[in-house]
Specification:
The complex is a heterodimer of chains A (706) and B (306). With 706 residues, chain A is mainly beta. Chain A has four helices and 37 strands. Chain A has a 26-stranded antiparallel β-barrel. A two-stranded antiparallel ribbon of chain A has the order 6-9. Chain A has a two-stranded antiparallel ribbon with strand order 7-8. Chain B contains 13 helices and no strands. Chain B starts with a helix and ends in a 52-residue tail after the last helix. Classes of the chains: A mainly beta (706), B mainly alpha (306). At the A-B interface, α1, β4, β5, β11 and β12 of A face α1, α2, α10, α11 and α12 of B.
């Protein structure tokens, strides 16, 4: 009887185990008859082209920044995308804004699982000011020359030829990026990859050309080229991978210097008319990286690690000490910097689930910048006029930073997850006021999901950044007030809290998400410099899926950044304070209507963003000095309508209205001669609006199914 | 012994019950994708045949020779596809959406079964899985074009959760994210582990100088914070201030510079253009003269003026 019972129990047990196993996994099926006859595999080609014309109502650098619509007038444009597939080979391409300065093209092709290649081109126009003007004229070699008949004077108000000499000089640039990439799957789980990129970046930027106590804001031309290469050799195993990578970035500036003729006159002549300002030096960065990951399902643990060794080399030839032939500084210690920086980056991360319902994450990162550039004494020539008499030593900055992060999650109940963590950052620096500092952060988090559609997530914590010593002798060596505490080197106590609420009930077509964040920084051991910084941020999004073809969304946000700092005019203790408060508010809404009348898609977007910055100076014994608010507002409205006339032809209308206004006392009323000792470019605060109306049609080619 | 039998019987019943609740089929369908497509023949579903997931010649892919087709990702579907008694609920299939019978971990596990190495193992240690994010919250595997991988739509997808950063793109000065000329992944490696700070390159600065290589140096005259952390002065997602500065000059500069003379003066409204225009306040403020704030390679550039 006992034996029979045992046998029965064993059978019951085995059956249970088998059923348990079967409930979670199935035997591999016989797929020999899975012919996939209903599968519409991609085969053939198709292409969609959109041809259109647009009209822009007004010139605006700001509103045309990045999108290419910066000039008033008409634009012709071409967009398109297409695919080709045959016998396992695939090609996919896209072109956008071909008629604009923001054109983009991308092609990728290959045989999935074997090789892939891609080529892309992007133009990014950056437009900053179109209200700027300058007296300087470019010579053929790029030098900035004074106009004929220019009469130098000590103050801008005395430039008699100023108004007649000003010509518009828009501050703008263009970035052109060409990328080539590819990946090839080798036998035995190896693969190789390569990415090549060339960035051409040129245009005009504002450069301060200073002399003794005056300066000219120069429309300085620049022409940079950065070539980069990334090569990778990868081995994939069932439980992990190893990747060996090499990165090269090579930067070249076509000009070593910006040269300009001095428009000011001095009681004691400088001794030279042409002054120099260095352009960024050519440099090269190489980095070798070994990274990998390994999964240990048995221990429910995953690890990843990487090690990168790099070097920055900068050995561009120096400019001369001075353009003034009357000065004879000491010989150069060497003809180029011999700039040499080694970088080391190590990272390790572990994620494990030691017990059910839990997760523990551990990560450590070490970054080192070891600037081995040799130090030397350099004679300083003050604005090409006089020898300073002192030799100055260059200061190469190095640092090491170690960052430890430990966190754990635990599902306390099915609906509640609690988390906690500890972070520590240790930083060591050379040649700065603080040699060693550490920051400890502790945080906790509770997430409550009472239903699958509702989540409330709270997080809060504190962090304390401490320093070993603020070395005032280092501060004094830079002529700094020794009482000052630089904000990135100062003791800091931070409190932060965050709340997120999201609700997307399955029975209603609504999704609501609200979040809030508050952080307070106190620099309690600083008497000069930054004293406090507070941040408050709130966002709210609502989306309403009215039907499969209709949806509406509304979003909004508010942010406030406040800071207080102290200064000392007397090079002693605090004798003034300043507050700097930024606010930012955003409202946005959008409507999507698809297949209206079966053939029309309508997209409607509107957003308004407002920025305001308030600055106040408080000096004991005087009334608070409140600056006029710095404000900006950006309105954006867009209506897009697509009408499908047939399976191959669509007509479209695209209407955009944008308005950007600023009040900015740093530009307002600052004509080229407004500041007695600064010849500015006279750029005005933005007050732009533009209506862009585009019409076009799209046509589909190809009748197969790629 | 009776207790043991009772226990095992209970486990058996529970197992059957759980199996039904979770809707996990134990058998694959008879005809694979043809079984599925006999019902799921809508355009959204069929779009997968325009993607890399459905390339018969790719032996690794779900539709490669001998692979499990739809059921490679959706699991065995025989009972889901089979007859259902009148009034009974059709057993659910393993799906990738918030209401799925499969847990988020199981959904992600299904994707990672094939993409673990592509994603990199750092994913497990990052913030996204800790936040219980499903792969399908960002990726649309059936769509012919995955929006999160497209220049024109990525910012919108990321911004669904990262609302503060999305809002920042509408601040007066920022990278051209609002115009879809840059992507979040241009700077961020979204699958990376916590140790990497999810930056595309090893550090924040390495990431910034990937495009702004003219600021990489090393310069003869360095500006100490520049070589350490661009974020000390710049707000990369957007700012009220030109140059994406975190604060207006001269106050930004005076947070670190308090030398005797002009760096430590409290510049007030008497320096505005309407009063006594100040070269320390107006135009480029400190940068009117010290315009080489990222470093200078000029021999006489120790004050970052040349």
């Amino acid at each position: 009887m006992m034996t029979t019972s045992r046998t029965g129990y064993r059978a019951l047990s085995a059956g249970t185990l088998l059923l348990m196993a079967a409930s979670t996994m199935a035997d591999a099926p016989d797929t020999s008859e899975w012919v996939c006859e209903y599968c519409p595999f991609a085969e053939g080609h198709s292409a969609d082209f959109r041809l259109g014309v647009s009209s822009v109502s007004d010139d605006s650098a700001y509103l045309g920044d990045a999108n290419g619509y910066d000039d008033k007038g008409a634009y012709a444009n071409v967009d398109g995308e297409g695919r080709y597939a045959s016998d396992g080979y695939r090609v996919q391409w896209e072109v956008a804004d071909l008629g604009l300065d923001s054109r983009r093209a991308h092609v990728e092709a290959g045989r999935p699982g074997v090789y892939e290649i891609n080529v892309s081109w992007r133009d990014i126009p950056r437009r900053r000011f179109d209200t700027s003007s300058s007296i300087f004229q470019n010579s053929t070699n790029g030098d900035l020359l004074l106009p004929g008949g220019w009469a130098p004077a000590p103050l801008t108000s005395q430039f008699t030829a100023l108004d007649a000499s000003l010509t518009p000089r828009p501050i703008q640039s263009d970035r052109r990026i060409l990328e080539l990439g590819g990946r090839y799957q080798l036998p035995n789980q190896f693969s190789i990859s390569a990415e090549l990129r060339r960035q051409q970046y040129d245009g005009l930027k504002i450069a301060g050309g200073s002399t003794f106590s005056n300066a000219s804001l120069l429309p300085a031309s620049f022409d940079y080229t950065t070539d980069s290469v990334d090569l990778g050799l990868r081995y994939d195993a069932e439980s992990g991978f190893v990747l060996l990578g090499w990165h090269l970035s090579d930067f070249e500036s076509s000009d070593a210097a910006t040269r300009w003729q001095q428009p000011f006159s001095f009681s004691a002549p400088l001794g030279t008319d042409t002054l120099l300002r260095a352009q960024p030096p050519d440099n090269q960065f190489q980095q070798l990286t070994l990274s990998g990951g390994y999964s240990m399902p048995r221990y429910r643990t995953v690890i990843s690690a990487s090690a990168a060794l790099g070097n920055i080399d900068q050995d561009a030839g120096f400019l001369a000490y001075t353009t003034n032939p009357a000065l004879n500084p000491a010989p150069l210690p060497r003809n180029s910097l011999g700039g040499d920086v080694d970088t080391t980056n190590l990272a390790f991360a572990l994620s494990t689930r030691p017990i059910r319902k839990s997760r523990v994450n551990l990560s450590y990162r070490f970054d080192k910048r070891d600037n081995k550039t040799p130090e030397a004494l350099w004679e300083r020539v003050i604005v090409d006029s006089v020898l300073s008499g002192d030799a100055e030593m260059n200061t190469p900055y190095s640092f090491e930073r170690g960052k430890l992060k430990l966190s754990a999650d635990y599902d306390l109940f099915d609906t509640v997850r609690v988390s906690g963590g500890y972070d520590r950052v240790d930083t060591d620096r050379d040649n700065q006021e603080v040699k060693s500092q550490s920051e400890d952060t502790g945080w906790g988090r509770v997430r409550w999901r009472p239903t699958s559609s509702l989540e409330i997530d709270t997080r809060g914590g504190v962090s304390e950044r401490d320093i070993d010593q603020y070395n005032e002798s280092v501060a004094l060596s830079f002529d700094q007030n020794p009482v000052l505490r630089k904000y990135n080197l100062a003791y800091r106590y931070r409190r932060f809290g965050e709340l997120r609420f999201s609700w997307s009930p399955s029975e209603l077509p609504l999704a609501i998400s609200i979040s809030g964040l508050q952080a307070e920084d106190e620099y309690t051991q600083s008497r000069l410099g930054l004293l406090s910084g507070d941040e408050l941020s709130v966002t709210a999004d609502v989306s309403w899926t009215i039907s499969d073809t209709k949806s509406l969304f509304v979003n909004s946000g508010f942010e406030k950044l406040e800071s207080r700092q102290a200064g000392s005019e007397q090079f002693a203790s605090e004798d003034w304070r300043a507050s700097h408060d930024d606010e930012f508010t955003l409202y946005g809404a959008g409507l999507r209507l698809r297949q209206l009348g079966g053939a029309v898609d309508l997209t409607l977007d509107y957003s308004r963003s407002e920025g305001e910055s308030k600055i106040r100076i408080d000096t004991p014994g005087a009334a608070a000095d409140q600056f006029p608010s710095l404000t900006s507002s950006f309105d954006f409205f867009r209506l897009k309508l697509d009408w499908r006339r047939s399976t191959t032809l669509s007509l479209g209308i695209d209407v955009r209205y944008q308005q950007f206004e600023t009040a900015d006392w740093s530009l307002d009323g600052v004509s080229p001669s407004a500041i007695p000792v600064i010849l500015s470019l006279g750029a005005r605060p933005y007050d732009d609006d533009a209506l862009i109306v585009g019409i076009g049609f799209s046509y589909r080619l190809g009748n197969k199914n790629p | 012994m009776r207790i043991f039998a009772l226990l095992m019987a209970t486990v058996l019943l529970l197992t059957v019950a759980v199996s039904n609740v979770r809707g996990q089929d134990s058998e694959y369908s008879r005809k694979g994708a043809d079984t599925c497509l006999s019902c799921h023949d809508n355009a959204t579903t069929l779009a997968i045949f325009k993607t890399k997931h459905a390339v018969p010649s790719d032996a690794r892919g779900p539709f490669g020779h001998g692979q499990l087709q739809c059921e490679a990702c959706h699991g065995p579907g025989d009972s889901h596809a089979g007859r259902v008694r009148r009034g009974a609920e059709r057993p659910a299939i393993f799906a990738f959406h918030p209401g799925s019978v499969a847990s988020i971990e199981a959904q992600n596990g299904m994707c990672l079964d094939c993409h673990s190495n592509d994603v990199g193992f750092g994913w497990h240690n990052g913030a996204h899985p800790s936040d219980e994010l499903a792969c399908s919250d960002c990726h649309t595997s059936h769509a012919a074009v995955d929006a999160v991988q497209q220049v024109a739509t990525q910012v919108e997808v990321c911004g669904n959760c990262h609302q503060r950063q999305r809002n920042d793109t509408l601040k007066a000065f920022g990278h051209p994210l609002f115009d879809d000329k840059m992507t979040c992944t241009g700077c961020h490696s979204t699958h990376a582990d916590d140790a990497s700070n999810i930056m595309a390159r090893q550090t924040l600065n390495d990431t910034c100088v990937d495009c702004h290589a003219e600021k990489r140096g090393p310069f003869l005259w360095e500006h100490a914070p520049v070589s350490e952390d661009c974020g000390l002065c710049h707000a990369a997602h957007g700012s009220n201030h030109s140059g994406m500065l975190t604060k207006r000059a001269p106050l930004l500069c005076q947070g670190c510079h308090a030398q005797a003379g002009h760096p430590s003066i409290a510049y007030g409204t008497d320096g505005l253009a309407s009063d006594l225009p100040s070269q320390y306040l107006l135009g480029q403020s400190c940068m009117n003269c010290h315009s080489q704030v990222h470093g200078s390679n000029h021999l006489s550039g120790s004050k970052l003026m040349r």
